């Protein structure tokens, strides 16, 4: 048995769910908590949290829209955590960028701290992390937990917000490979997937659905042409777009046959043999 | 007097004159098929002082994916320029969409982010 085995070190990490993990992406949360516990990482949900604001505000003068991110980081710090983990790619991006601002923009933080005078001042000391960043550290635990090797071909879809802007990237932003390593560790095959870091159209789905249907067509077709049996992602909005818009794609392209879309934790649960446990 | 260039530069914090029109932003943009002006053309219009740029469809189909910004050889973050153009409209209390007109059965994350990006 490898020294860093399942008897290895256990860790607890503060967990920020965000709005969609409690609703549309409930499967993501349930499988994530289960599979990460099996490899020695326990998610401790914050006692109090708020919506992160979803998209990070980019205007130089718009600090108001960044308050939600900072407030959540203060909650984590208050509860004694130095790291805050979140599953959703959009929450990850927004919280991470808010924290980078807290570390580097003294002037902005003076204003924010003064505005939120009911809160303790925040200094950027809570590191925002995504569970995919823990995969390499837990590689051997993952391998040892596999009961049912995947034996399928997967396209690892990263989308945009785990990788860009480059300051927040969880991996190389033009050619990430964490999810590919995860697939291979569980006995699956990671296919070559050139569109893995191209945006799915994101919130355009609310108002400009045609654009997202077109994006879904290109992305899913690219995965399919490269031999994928399924696509994995870590973003509830990518998941919604790529899965739901395939129905619309079929109406336009009758020869399109589609692919199933999974959260990366769902295929972990499948490989670990715990997929429908406790439901 | 405030020009469209000075307003965009102030809101975005970006130096538009750094752009040398190589077109790498437009080459990588996943949404170009939906745009009336390409991202590099938007920069050119702003530099030329063309106020009609605020009526372009381009900033509204931008999904803030940051691909343009990370690939720009001159480090111009076009994502921020698109945000500035949206805000020039939204801050005049002009909503780009009616929230009631949003598609049904969307995940929260889509509703909240679209509300933030398309309404003032």
Task: Provide structural commentary.
The complex is a heterodimer of chains A (279) and B (120). Chain A folds into 2 domains: 11-131, Glutathione S-transferase Yfyf (Class Pi), Chain A, domain 2; 147-272, Rossmann fold, CATH 3.40.50. Chain A is globular and about 60 Å long. By secondary structure, chain A is an alpha/beta fold. Chain A starts with 10 loop residues before the first strand and ends in a 7-residue tail after the last helix. Chain A is built from 9 helices and 8 strands. Chain B has one domain (4-95): Alpha-helical ferredoxin (Fumarate Reductase Iron-sulfur Protein, Chain B, domain 2), CATH 1.10.1060. The A-B interface holds A 18-20, 23-25, 51, 53-62, 65, 88, 90, 159-161, 164-166, 173-174, 197-199, 201-211, 214-215, 236-237, 240 and B 10-13, 30-31, 33-34, 60-61, 63-67, 69-70, 77, 79-80, 83-84, 87, 96-97, 101-103, 106-114, 116-118.
Q: Assign the CATH topology of the largest domain in chain A.
A: Rossmann fold
CA(first)-CA(last) distance of chain A: 32 Å
The number of helical elements of chain B comes to: 7
Outline type of chain A: globular
Main sheet: strands, sense, barrel of chain B: none
Most extensive interface: A-B, 47 and 40 residues
Q: What class would the helix/strand composition of chain B place it in?
A: mainly alpha
C-alpha termini separation of chain B: 25 Å
Beta-strand segment tally of chain A: 8
Nearest-angstrom radius of gyration of chain B?
14 Å
Low-confidence stretches of chain B: none
Q: pLDDT below 50 for ≥5 consecutive residues: which ranges of chain A?
A: 1-6
CATH topology of chain B: Fumarate Reductase Iron-sulfur Protein, Chain B, domain 2
What's the CATH architecture of the largest domain in chain A?
3-Layer(aba) Sandwich
């Amino acid at each position: 048995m490898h020294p860093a085995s399942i008897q290895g070190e256990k860790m607890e990490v503060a967990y920020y769910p965000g709005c969609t993990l409690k609703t549309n992406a409930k499967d993501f949360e349930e499988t994530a908590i289960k599979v990460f516990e099996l490899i020695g990482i326990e998610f401790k949900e914050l006692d109090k949290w708020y919506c992160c604001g979803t998209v990070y505000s980019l205007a130089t003068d718009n600090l108001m829209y960044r308050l939600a991110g900072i407030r959540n980081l203060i909650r984590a710090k208050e509860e004694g955590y130095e790291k805050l983990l979140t599953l959703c790619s959009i929450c990850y991006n927004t919280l991470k960028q808010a924290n980078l601002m807290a570390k580097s923009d003294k002037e902005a933080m003076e204003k924010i701290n003064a505005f939120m005078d009911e809160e303790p001042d925040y200094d950027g000391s809570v590191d925002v992390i995504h569970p995919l960043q823990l995969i390499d550290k837990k590689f051997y635990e993952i391998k040892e937990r596999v009961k049912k090797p995947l034996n399928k071909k997967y396209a690892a879809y990263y989308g945009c917000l785990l990788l860009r802007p480059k300051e927040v990237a969880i991996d190389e932003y033009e050619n990430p490979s964490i999810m590919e390593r995860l697939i291979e560790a569980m006995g699956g095959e990671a296919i070559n997937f050139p569109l893995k870091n191209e945006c799915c159209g994101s919130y355009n789905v609310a108002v400009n659905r045609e654009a997202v249907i077109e994006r879904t067509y290109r992305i899913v077709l690219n995965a399919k042409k490269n031999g994928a049996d399924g696509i994995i992602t870590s973003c509830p909005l990518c998941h919604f777009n790529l899965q739901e818009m395939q129905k619309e794609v079929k109406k336009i392209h009758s020869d399109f046959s589609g692919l199933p879309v999974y959260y990366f934790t769902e295929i972990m649960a499948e490989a670990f043999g715990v997929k429908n446990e406790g439901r | 007097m405030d020009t469209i260039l000075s307003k965009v530069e102030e809101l975005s914090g970006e130096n538009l004159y750094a752009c040398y029109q190589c077109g790498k932003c437009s080459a990588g943009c996943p949404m170009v098929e939906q745009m009336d002006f390409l991202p590099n053309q938007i920069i050119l219009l702003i530099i030329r002082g063309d106020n009609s740029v605020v009526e372009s469809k381009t900033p509204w189909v931008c999904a803030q994916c940051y691909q343009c910004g990370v690939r720009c050889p001159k480090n111009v973050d076009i994502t921020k320029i698109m945000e500035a153009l949206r805000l020039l409209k939204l801050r005049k209390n002009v909503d780009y969409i009616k929230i009631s007109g949003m598609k049904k059965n969307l995940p929260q994350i889509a509703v909240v982010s679209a509300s933030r990006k398309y309404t003032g």
